[in-house]
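Reviewers of the previous submission asked for a worked example of the structure-prediction workflow described in the proposal, so we include one complete record here. The input consisted solely of the amino acid sequence. No template or homolog information was supplied to the procedure at any stage.
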Amino acid sequence: MKTFSFVHAADLHLGYSQYGLEARREDFDKAFCELVDKTLELKPTFMIIAGDLFHNARPSNVTLENAVKNFSRLREAGIPVLVVDGSHDSAPNVVTSTILNPLDSAGLIYFLPRHEGACWRKPECCYVYGVPNFRTRRKTEEMLPAFMEKNKPTTDPSLFNIFVFHMALEMPELNPPYIEAEGSPELIPGDFNYYAAGHVHAPYLGKFKNGLLVYPGSTETINYDEAKTEKGFYYVEVDEKGEASPQFIKLKSPRKFVVLEQDFSGVAAPKITELAVQLVKGADEEGAILVPVLKGVLPAEASRADVDVAQIRSAAEKALLVHPVVLLRESEVPEAVVRSIFESEVKDLKTKSFEYFMQIFTERFSPEQAEKIARAAVNLIEPLTKRQDEKVKQILEELVQ
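From that input alone, the workflow returned the following structure tokens.
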């Protein structure tokens, strides 16, 4: 076997105007440009992009133009780009199709699932096989075996065999909370040396079946909870014995995210606004995206709407954007109290409901007001379910008198 090397990238999400900002769309282009720059320096035999090249199947003209320019640079350098579609850039329907098709026809990429046998070969080096993305677990489990039956993988033990796919496999060490596994490992054939994966936005490298399973992660930050995750790609060298040596290459261009997580349990809304503003001002940094994450349980009389999010957003002077994430919870009746009310068998539904409403309203109103509102709430149940509009109106009028 001849020695060779390749670049493995995924989840470029070109065209993503995150937070509605043109500057963020440009950031994703810059990351791709840096990826191409570094690839040209490394001079690999080929490049793999394991899905989500674009953020959607019909990117804007400016996004497409920048992509064409960068792919042209790779073509001029004689570096083929092997691609599979991802959950974002897969064809939404047969008529619309995906932009990956015309890019393939133009010779700028090699869209693996579109070609006979869904494969690409480099004599005396490697065999590369790629499958499409089917978006959901149900469709993946139904359609992936059918695709592989129609386009049977033909691995060659004398070559280095690569399986390219865009899917989160059902493996506990792989899946962050915001990604649902799209398929089980049993769906993937076992006679490959390298499994070039995409979809999971954090880098991962581990043993899988008879080879290596590798996720390079995304090239830019898609979700704020990826703020501490390094962005980059893998450069893989394969020796004459078929031994792969993956090296993670970090990108320098991705924009900095600063996540400011704080628990404000028991703090009044005006004070939360004041403290969050101070938090943002203290972390203000040129060009960064600041994400104050406000957590905790508010006092009984407070509402999330009372927190001045606009004031928090405008607290920074140097950052590109302040994006507050309000995860504050309003006070709730303790679960034990709810259970004690509704598990009693000797009380009818109206009595139980009245006790439940009283528990809620006494935290926010005087005893007299709480009782008045609780009784009104109970009295509304029957006329509301029976659509007795006049009765509902009468009860509400009595309540506000």
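Residues 271 and 309 are 12 Å apart (CA to CA). We consider this example representative of the routine output the project will generate in years two and three.
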